[in-house]
Amino acid sequence: MTSVADNIIRIKSTLPEGVELVAVSKFHPAEAITEAYNAGQRLFGESRVQEFLTKQAALPADIRWHFIGHLQTNKVRSIIGKTSMIESVDSLRLLQLIDDESQRAGVVSRVLMQVHVAAEETKFGFSPEELLEYFTQAGYRSLRATHLCGLMGMATNTDDTRRIHADFNAIATLRRQILDRCPDLTGFDTLSMGMSGDYPIAIECGATHIRVGTDIFGNRNY
Asked: Are residues 103 and 145 in contact, defined by beta-carbon separation less than 8 angstroms?
């Protein structure tokens, strides 16, 4: 069995310039994160607030943390100012709360809008139509302490590579449509898409960040 460090080095060696690896460390112990850290990895993804806060307090301060899971509104305040990015903004209510709490804390939060294009109904996120409406109406102009950095999404969980390509292309196309409609929107350049099973396809479709857990840390301990 290969080590965490070996896996980090192997995956990074395959990434084109401009594509960044988010090592999805949720459900894995701090020791595994330390092994990845010692191999040079600095960007990690967590999806549960309490688990994230415990690890963030115990691990090196130069780690950049992305929150990638469904964020409950009653947990927003506890993570504001502690993440490099919140990737999983899946409602306008959550976005407004992040903005309010960021302004209260005197910080600017960097976020991604989560778009739902996959076949599974259980996944969170805006529909492409909802996001196009939000940006066409320039709702982002009212944000005071939040920087919209781009989109996050997942492909359908399937072996059909054509469907996976179509899902990732839909996310990339949506980002271009948003930029076409919003010429004043700056820094909207992140596409976080692709996981252990499909990240090479995501990269083909324009991903700037891939979220890889199993291929680095092995199967999760739920």
From this structure: yes
Q: HSE on the CB side for 149, CA within 13 Å?
A: 20
> Could you please report the per-residue DSSP string of 110-141?
EEEEEEE-SS-TTS--B-HHHHHHHHHTTGGG
Distances (CA, A) of 8 to 43, 55, 80, 121, 192: 11, 19, 28, 32, 18
Q: What is the pLDDT along the chain (222 residues), one digit of tens a residue?
A: 689 999 999 999 999 999 999 999 999 999 999 999 999 999 999 999 999 999 999 999 999 999 999 999 999 999 999 999 999 999 999 999 999 999 999 999 999 999 999 987 767 899 999 999 999 999 999 999 999 999 999 999 999 999 999 999 999 999 999 999 999 999 999 999 999 999 999 999 999 999 999 999 988 654
SS3 category, 109: strand
Q: Which residue ranges form the domains of the chain, and what is each CATH number? A: 4-217 (3.20.20.10)
pTM of the model: 0.95
